[in-house]
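Before a computer can learn anything about folding, someone has to put a protein's shape into writing. The outcome of that step, for a single protein, is printed below:
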Amino acid sequence: MWAVIFWVVSLLTTVSISDKQPELQKPVLTQVPKLDEVYTEEKVTLTCDIGEGWQYHWFKNNVKIQENASTDRYFTGKQYIFSERTDSLVVEYTCQGYRVEDNSSFSQKSDAVIIRVIDLPKPTLTHWPEWSPVYIGESVTLRCHSTWKYLWFKDDKCLSASGGQQDYNYTVTEDSDQAEYKCQGYNEERNLFSHYSTSFTLKVNELPKPVISHYPEWTDLYSGENMTIMCEFEEGWQYQWIKNGKPINTHEGDQNKTGSLYIITDPTQPKEQKYQCQGYNEKRKVFTKKSELVTLKISDLPKPTLKRQPAYRTLYEGDSVSLKCEVKGVSKYLWLKDGKLLSSEERVNTNGDTYNIKAATQSDNGVYGCQGFIEDRNVHTPVSKPLTLSLSELFTDPVLTIIPATSVFDGDPVILQCQSTSTKWETQLNYSFLKDEGTLHHDSKQNRIQIFKTSETDIGKYTCEVDVTGTNIKKTSNSVQLTVKGSNPKPVLTLIPPWEYIFTMETVSLVCQVDSKRDDWKYQWFKDGDDTPLPCNDNCNITRVTVSDEGRYWCRGKRGDPPVYSQTSNFVSLNISELPEVKLNLEPPHTQIFAGHSFTLRYIFLDSL
């Protein structure tokens, strides 16, 4: 037993001795410059120190750094010197010591140094004025927006004369060339240069001279002819016009590259006019040079004379007449009637300077004028003095009369008489009669026809037409309705299905039929002596009948306008009965049935009729 106790005590003593081994040394890691944020490409020196006889391993984000792995970082003794090239990083550096003579002897890792890497700033370059190019004599100010000291560059050469100022001012001279400007910030304390600003290229131009042109190309104009004069210069300029040495619409207009003035000449203007244009920049208060002169010479347009042929005698409907437009120097003629230009369809009878009207009608009456058109100049002459064309009627409008009346009984005779009076000597009138727009009697010298015995077939609308042989003059009367009354037929009313009683929820149809040769009958439906028609079509269909549909029904036919009615039909009675009830009987009438016993279920219809 004592041997066991001794072994346990010995084991505990051994464990206690191993737990008291000395702690590993921990290096101290320092940073120069001591900054939480460093710029890309800014050098940082880390120093790892334990004491003499130690070498050091370096770790970046817990990954061992290979010695002299790149040119922007290297080891020197206990120091690690590096610069980061990527911004927006957060990097953690640590170090660890080791004995050269015993590679298995390591210190603890140092506390971490955490560095945030940010990009070098980029200054902003602004310039005033904002426009480019600038013109000789204008001043320019360049401004560099940065929190560091300012350096200026012109075509990549540093301007020592800028003196580190934020603004660089100078005046453009005639010797100034196009140059590219940029600026850069410098941090003296940390010996760092910022990125270059975005470069600005300054363009220097002489004051422009606008180019003046005109359309059409000729400068000898007719009074009333249109001319467009165009002034062309660089963008950013407004245009100003100079007429006969004096400015007009000063500083007005848009800022398009081509400014134009639209000139409408008239007889009150001088016969000679001189135009120039000049650009003006409202913002910069500067004028361009003046353009060359455009000189316009203006003359009056000829005025046409309109004549009628024949000139003096009275004109009647059906006569031919010509209008002649006399004017020199034109290539086309335009014709007006009642102040409106005639369309190409209305000018089909024109022949050069003559407008021909063959077989004139009352629609040709009106006030005419003509106008010349110089096609290659796109200019119109003034309109001629008006000429009034007034045609006399060849005959009066016909009037149709039905004698003795427009409403007659079946078998009565009637006379259709067409009245029209000729206004020109020795004019023979021809008469035609039409019924319902179809020819009834054609091209007769007589102005009347007779229907000896009227019937239903004579019912209709009648008109008459009057014309003159050898002309296209034709006139039509208003229509007159002829009505023939006869014995009214009596319709037959049929009930389908023809049962004496109809159960509720069934469907029935009432059919009304007039025995007549005419097929234009429509039908009206009535119930129980009420004179108000039911809302039915030609056949009166009642679906899902109810007791309220029971009654006496009758119908009548209707045709024509004004309407003609048939006699009324006989009555048909519609009798409605409710559906019968059904009773279920059990035989024998026991309320309890034993297995193996038989029974009967019987349906009994209770007759409701």
Observations:
- Residues 147 and 185 are 8 Å apart (CA to CA).
- The chain is about 5% helix and 50% strand.
